[in-house]
Amino acid sequence: MSAPLLQLDQATIRFGGLTAVNAVDLAVAPGELRGLIGPNGAGKTTLFNLITGVYAPSSGTLRFADASLAGLRPDQITGLGIARTFQNIRLFPGLSVFDNVRVACNLHRTTSPLHTLLRGRAFRADEAAIADRVDALLTLFNLDRFRDAPATSLPYGEQRRLEIVRALATQPRLLLLDEPAAGMNPSEKVDLVRLIREIHQRFNLTILLVEHSMRVVMTVCEHITVLDYGVKIAEGTPAEIQKNPRVIEAYLGEDHTAKFGHH
Amino acid sequence: MPFPRQHLGLIATLAAAVAITTFGGSLNAYYLDVAMNVGIAIILAVSLNLVNGHTGQFSLGHAGFMAIGAYLSSACTLRLAPALADASSPLLAQHALFFVALLLGGFTAAIAGFLIGLPSLRLRGDYLALITLGFAEIIRVVFQNTPALGGAIGLNGMPPLTSIAWTYGWVAVTVFTISCLINSTYGRGFLAVRDNEIAASAAGINPTRYKVVAFTLGAFFAGIAGGLFAHLKLAIDPRGFDFFRSVEIVVMVILGGMGNTLGVIVAATLLTLLPEFLRPVAEYRMVIYAALLIGLMLARPQGLFNVRLGKSRL
Question: Fewer CB atoms < 10 Å away: N or C end of chain A?
Answer without folding.
Answer: N
